[in-house]
Amino acid sequence: MVEYEEVVSAIHKLFFKAETQLGEDVIEVIKKAYEKEDNPVARRNLEAILRNIDSAGKLKVPMCQDTGIPVVFVELGRELCLDFDLKDAISEGVRKATKEIPLRPNAVHPLTRKNPGTNTGLHVPLISLDLVEGDELKLTVMPKGAGSENVSALKMMLPSQVESIPKFVVEVVKNAKGKPCPPIFLGIGIGSTFDGAAKLAKKALLRDVRQMDEFERKIMDMANELGIGPMGLGGRTTVLGAYVELGFCHTASLPVAVNIQCWANRKASTVLR
Fold first, then answer.
1. 207 found inside a domain
2. Residue 180 lies in a domain
């Protein structure tokens, strides 16, 4: 039986882990980018990123001053019974994490810009719920920084434009330039609806970043030909990986969303039973 306090504690621990440690998959691709880089400025930037990652882990402090806005993915087993408000428990975990890690209070009212100081409020944390088989509760957190989020994009393409999808994605990267602190990861949602494509794009960023298919590698290679490089100062690696999630869509539409993530592809998961 999963209890309220278990969820609160799990969310707090997950944000601490995500903010202070990158997954081995992310570290591995950054190291590979450093090894193959022949631009001296780009190499220094990648070396600084790797030192930063190491220091954050050793000192147990957030690896970036932008600790992001809290995004939580929930997979709820249909056989699991909860006798408490799951949303409230997740929000309490975020409040605890904000106070104790600490996290920068980033969540504000969109019009008044009033900041409650807790990273909670109207529709924040952003919770994505999927009902799955079983009796487990899987929680995945993704602190999402504004630098990369602000240069993300969505386009309602025509069904006849399937072949133009890679070109659109590369155009988004080109327009972003150095703003999202490259090298970056690309979450790409193709299909579903206007809002559904954006959700798919964000969900794509949860994948093991070492695994891409031929289509995804094509997009990555095309984007790297731009030469934007680490921190926008030139180099071989602008994009560390591209990841596509698909969803059936209306016969008359083709939504495509590109959710950009900076090199700090922060995420952490746990399963409660």
1. yes
2. yes
Pairing of strands 69-77, 184-191: unpaired
Q: How far apart are CA 272 and CA 84, in angstroms?
A: 15
Which structural domain range is residue 161 located in?
A: 147-265
**152-184 per-position pLDDT tens digit:** 999 999 999 999 999 999 999 999 999 999 999
pLDDT tens, residue by residue, 178-234: 999 999 999 999 999 999 999 999 999 999 999 999 999 999 999 999 999 999 999
Q: Which residues contact 165 (CB under 8 A, 6 or more apart)?
A: 157, 190, 256
Contact 206, 189 (CB under 8 A): no
Q: Is residue 250 a part of any domain in this protein?
A: yes
Q: Domain count of the chain?
A: 1
Q: Helices in the chain by DSSP H: which ranges?
A: 4-20, 24-36, 40-59, 86-100, 146-149, 165-176, 194-204, 214-224
pLDDT in tens, 76-134: 999 999 999 999 999 999 999 999 999 999 999 999 999 999 999 999 999 999 999 99
